[in-house]
Design goal:
Residues 147-234 form the FecR protein domain. The protein has 361 residues and is of the alpha+beta class. The chain has 3 domains: 7-89; 108-278, Sandwich (Jelly Rolls), CATH 2.60.120.1440; 289-360, 3-Layer(bab) Sandwich (Phage tail protein beta-alpha-beta fold). It is built from 8 helices and 21 strands. The chain has helices spanning 7-15, 26-39, 44-54, 58-72, 78-89, 280-283, 298-305, 334-344; strands at 108-110, 118-122, 139-143, 150-153, 159-162, 167-172, 177-183, 185-189, 198-202, 205-209, 213-218, 223-230, 232-237, 253-258, 261-266, 276-277, 290-297, 313-315, 324-330, 347-351, 356-360. The strands form 4 sheets. It has an 8-stranded antiparallel sheet with strand order 1-4-5-8-11-12-15-16, with no helix packed on it. A hairpin with a 4-residue loop joins strand 20 (347-351) and strand 21. The radius of gyration is 26 Å and the shape is globular.
């Protein structure tokens, strides 16, 4: 939708004087305007006020130009750029504002529906100091819904697939690519970049690569599993005081994993299993909408099921946690599978209003 402003109003804007409070500098105003424009908080009346403000004096134009250039370096202004270009074509803005250059390295999010994820942009401290603009790249959180995987293409070209009910925090800069797995599991197909390490941190465990494909999964039993699909990865046990991808730490334990190798660790970063081999078709079947198990403990199966089940499944009797399960099913067959488990194993399945309960028969 194009936004139109009558020419007489712009002429009036050039003559109008705007009172600026002592503490309300053009830089602070410019940052607020850019924030409002980017967030979509400007209705037609508010945008008219913006045109009045920016055409009022050179200080305003200089402050906005500077803020826009800084924000463009972190790729956050496409919607603002589109609108400014429209205004420039209509001669609504004075020619002292250069045509913005687009930052083409944008994250592309493939969603099967609008409700497939909630994307939270965290700009922590960017506007804390009214006289300085922090150019730190903002972290971006991605959350997948229960019952559905979510695939994301990051700005560096890497692909990330979140399992259902999972969450990551992305921080990509010119020097590093940092991901924090906050919940659930994710598969990473990393774009090769020798100059920037790609790291995934979960609690006190960190995976570091420069180009490969691997999976990291967190579980409710305080365990983290790393499985490598392709290439070579480093898995580091981080000291508690080191929560970044600083490779200079001398007291961390590092393992190297190759294709079809995996390891498990607890939330403290302590490795709780040796490096083992696995079947990739079974391990990564969830990427194709299917769950496959061959002699896997029931508690592990339930953890995966709860990423996709309409109602959460709860095991109330710990004595059945380690029942070994062999099964293969699609995400939309979970209800039938639970009923089948109750028939094939010494399990009682009880359905309550808000959950399904498994107990010993």
């Amino acid at each position: 939708m194009k936004y139109h402003i009558n020419e007489p109003m712009v002429d009036k804007a050039c003559k109008q004087q705007v009172d600026i409070p002592v503490q309300d500098t053009p830089q602070a105003q410019a940052r607020r305007w850019l924030t409002d424009l980017y967030a979509g908080n400007c209705d037609p009346k508010r945008r008219e006020e913006f045109v009045l403000w920016i055409n009022n004096n050179e200080a305003n134009r200089h402050a906005f130009r500077h803020s826009l250039e800084v924000w463009q370096t972190i790729g956050m202004t496409d919607s603002v750029v589109d609108w400014l270009e429209q205004c420039a074509c209509q001669d609504l803005l004075v020619p002292l504002i250069p045509k913005p250059k687009r930052n083409l390295k944008k994250s592309v999010i493939w969603l099967s529906s609008i409700a497939a994820s909630i994307i939270l942009i965290v700009v922590s401290g960017v506007f804390h100091n009214p006289d300085k603009l922090d150019t730190t790249t903002p972290k971006i959180a991605f959350n997948s819904p229960i019952g559905q995987n979510l695939t994301i293409v990051l700005s560096d070209g890497s692909n990330v697939t979140l399992a259902g009910n999972s969450s990551i925090l992305v921080d990509i800069s010119q020097h590093a690519r940092r991901i924090t797995l906050q919940k659930g599991g994710a598969y990473f197909d990393v774009s090769h970049d020798p100059s920037r390490v790609f790291s995934v941190t979960a609690e006190q465990l960190q995976v570091r690569v420069r180009g490969t494909a691997f999976e990291v999964k967190r579980s409710t039993d305080n365990a983290i599993k790393i499985s490598v699909h392709r290439g070579l990865v480093e898995v580091a046990d981080l000291p508690e005081q080191v929560a970044t991808d600083d490779q200079s730490a001398t007291d961390e334990q590092v393992l190297q994993l190759r294709a079809n190798e995996q390891v498990r660790a607890d939330n403290n970063g302590t490795f709780i299993t040796k490096v083992t081999r696995f079947d990739s078709e079974t391990e990564f079947s969830w990427l194709k909408g299917r769950l496959i198990y061959d002699g896997i403990p029931l508690k592990t199966v339930v953890i995966d099921i709860n990423r996709y089940a309409k109602k959460p499944v709860v095991i109330l009797d710990e004595s059945i946690n380690d029942l070994t399960i062999t099964a293969s099913f699609n995400f939309d067959q979970i209800d039938q599978v639970l009923a089948g488990l109750a028939s094939a194993y010494p399990i009682i399945l009880t359905e309550e209003n808000d959950r399904k309960v498994l107990t010993k028969q």
